[in-house]
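Limitations
The structure tokens in this dataset are predictions for the assembled complex, not deposited experimental models. Users should treat interface geometry with appropriate caution, especially where small molecules or nucleic acid strands are included. An illustrative entry is reproduced here so readers can see what is and is not provided.
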Amino acid sequence: MQTFIYGMLGLPLVFAFVAISGFFNNSVLHILNRTIATIVGGIFVKMLMQMPPGEVFNSEYFYLDALSIWVLLIVVVLYVASAWVSKSYLVREHKRGYLSRTPKLIGRYYALYHLFILTMMLVLLLKNLGLMWVGIEATTLISALLVSFKFTRSALEATWKYIMVCTVGICLALLGTMILYYAQLTATGTEKALSWLWLSQHGDLLNPSLTKLAFLFIFIGYGTKVGLAPMHTWLPDAYSEAPSLISGLLSGALCTCSLYVLIRNLIIVIPTIGTAFIMDLFFVFAFLTIAIAVPFVVVQRDIKRLLAYSSMENIGIMIVGLGIFSSISVGATLLHMFNHALIKFVLFYIAGTVIQEYQTKNMMRIHGMVQEAPHTATFLLMGMFAILGMPPFGLFFSKFNIIFSLFKDGQYLLGSLMIFLLAGILIGILYHVMRMLCGRAKRKAYADLLDHTDTPFLAVLLIGSIIVGMGLERIPYLNSLLLEASQIVVGGVHI
Amino acid sequence: MEQLVMVLLFVAFLQNRIMDLRKAVACLCLQSAIIAGACLISGFANGSGLHSVLPGLLTILVKVCLIPYALFRLVGKLTDERELVADINTNYSTALSAFFLMLSYVLVDKMLPGIGDRDIMASSMGLILIGLVLIVMRSRAIMQIIGLMTMENGIYLLGLAMTEGLPTVIELGIFFDVLVAVLVLVILTNRLNVSFMTTDTNVLRRLKG
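Predicted assembly:
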């Protein structure tokens, strides 16, 4: 098992150095990129085969259980998919986009991209809360270089906001982690400092008021990284200015990783703080996030910012699911993380293609895509239906279960409010999408750029979301993995 | 230790008054040196061997040598070496810092009653908040980086006072992250200078809605 972990972490690192060295030309890098990602995916599958869902792997620095495997599954799926589609994206940007004058930057792009994935996988594999913090901060720094990759004025602005807001937030999380360590010191001594396993087994010994203070800082800190309002100001800027593939990873994988660390901390503090406080805290921030997203979606003109606000809405839903803290809602939240990551990656990729086709981000200047670019239009429509939570896509089931458990918990008012807000999002997004798809084209598209090199992967991700949403009970491994993971969150660890 | 903390607070307030970028970096360097001193003192008091002095030595290497060096080089590339906000701003930020220092004493008394090292805790909490004030009130990119570092120093000192330092592996990771963060910020500031002809962050207001 240790070998697998080193392989998963080592291969992208080696490739990053190879790519930045400039030793190989771009066509070799394209091939190597796909090969490395596929091998890492293969190692992960091998790892899954050796570990039945209920088992844990525990060593000095690494810890793997159903929860981390579930999130790792999301990251690895996105890694493989993004590696396979990145060639067509980069070639198009090379022909007409920002890479046209500087083809050498492709090597740097690959290096940063693999390092980014590497740090995210590292966060998911680590056992120590302090080291998880180090990993999350490292993802911020590497992704900042990716957000500013185009080095245009607006990209620099987005990056500056991103790094300033997130680093301040993450510093607060460090403060919270230190207070948690102090609570651990006073309760059980210096043994196994900040080890997640130790803390989750001895969570009830911690001093309640100290733990509450620590968790407040941790929540604000990682909440900034997840993109909760009112600390979300960096999110639409960073998502809209990053290269489209990276926006998909930021939304799908990085948010999920930060949420994962938040969940790990949550598991520790639940026995001492209790669910009532957590529910209030999470609901306030989650509903604020969804409510702020609605008006910005409705009046939006930039297609990638539209997707960014839709991400905020989905993050809000996940936080609501965590706040309810029943086994149904937590399971639905984990499922929502999976589906949202897949669909959002597809959507950002398609948004990037639309931008390449029309050379504008402004949705008001795009009409009649059905005639001009039928393939892109089909995928855009399907992706948008999926993200809005229409059946049969997976998001329908997870959203439905979260709202269902909200009502089951007796929160009728909040449940109705949530349905009302989601309807607002639906109207806003559908209005924009239908404007883009229908009508008469006033502006010619360059070409229908989606072709056989990338559509299969997008289709697989879309269908994967349908399969996981509808037929989860029929896939024994995934089903028991999800049950086990939500059991870890709700029930804690008692080994 | 108490005397060190007094000097530290003095330096942090001085940071509020300085408008010259070069002097501000020097001030940050001094502040980090004091933190390193505190770290070494607490290391010697609590144990012996490399393990106890390692954080102090690392602080000297990273925060006193490498980061100020990078910032000094960056300032050397800029043509205009002064902060751009109006002078009245220094008075506001000093007043805010004083208020936050008081607030942090109240916070420490409320949240962690009966803890030893009350002054150190309160002043490190104050340092964190002063860092935030600097980030919010200053408009030059370098000044914001200095605010971020001040905040980081405050958190580090708080950790030192509360827990006598985190485990070595985590501390190594944090030092590495801080170093990389400053490097990335220096690269960005350089690019800001190239693209916008200024490092004033007030020009960054195109992305809205």
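Some entries come with short summary sentences. For this one: The two ends of chain B are 49 Å apart (CA to CA).
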